[in-house]
TrEMBL record:
The lineage of its organism: Bacteria, Bacillati, Bacillota, Bacilli, Bacillales. The keyword Signal applies. Keywords: Signal. It comes from Paenibacillus odorifer. The keyword 4Fe-4S does not apply. Residues 1-25 form the signal peptide. It comes from the Bacteria. This is IseA DL-endopeptidase inhibitor. It holds the Pfam family Endopep_inhib.
């Protein structure tokens, strides 16, 4: 099987991308370092990060994009090979180089979140150790299918908005959850104004 197809199939099966709305950039190198980045592409030239007209239809791709950023950071980025260390009786792992400093991590998170949401997330979920960003070595996630969410606008002004998303569970599970999403317009584009660890 072609490596790009295999990687794309893996990303789809893990729920990192939804069919038809995602792109995986892979290098031609062999091994686990072949995966360079996962980006969800949707409306707008640069994808959901450039949404300036927020509607019940455009908020879902933005939330899916924000979740991809959260998953990438919460797993340590492209962390192969993983470097770990012990701190206060807990095992930590360093983040990959592309998000390995506080500035790089903040810039990456702010592609979908406000500065305040990103700063809270970095302050509460990461540790700067020997000049590098790290996190507790644990896996996170949930079984909600944000790609299939439906949105209801609760309020909207020129610079703030609130939505209630009805998000179904992954296949095999019944029901859905209601997820409250608060947004703010930053430099002309909408950003999630809730820390990723709280939202997801």
């Amino acid at each position: 099987m072609n490596k790009k197809w295999m990687l794309g199939s893996l990303a789809l099966s893990l729920g990192l991308l939804s069919a038809g709305s995602g792109v995986m950039a892979a290098s031609s190198s062999v091994g686990s370092s072949a995966i360079k980045n996962v980006a969800v592409i949707g409306t707008g030239k640069e994808g959901p990060a450039t949404i300036n007209n927020l509607t019940v239809k455009s908020v879902v791709p933005l939330v899916v994009h924000a979740r991809a950023i959260y998953f990438y950071t919460s797993r340590g980025g492209n962390f192969f090979p993983m470097e770990t260390f012990m701190y206060k009786a807990q095992e930590y792992r360093y983040l990959s180089n592309d998000i390995g400093t506080k500035a790089k991590l903040m810039n990456y998170i702010k592609k979908a979140y406000t500065h305040n949401a990103a700063a809270y997330y970095v302050q509460t979920q990461f540790l700067e150790h020997e000049g590098r960003m790290s996190q507790v070595n644990a896996d996170l996630g949930n079984s909600l299918m944000f790609e299939k969410a439906t949105a209801r606008m609760l309020s909207k002004t020129a610079t703030t908005a609130e939505f209630d998303l009805t998000v179904p569970y992954s296949s095999g599970q019944e029901g859905s959850e209601s997820v409250y999403v608060k947004l703010k317009k930053v430099n002309g584009y909408w950003r999630i104004d809730t820390s990723p660890d709280i939202l997801f």
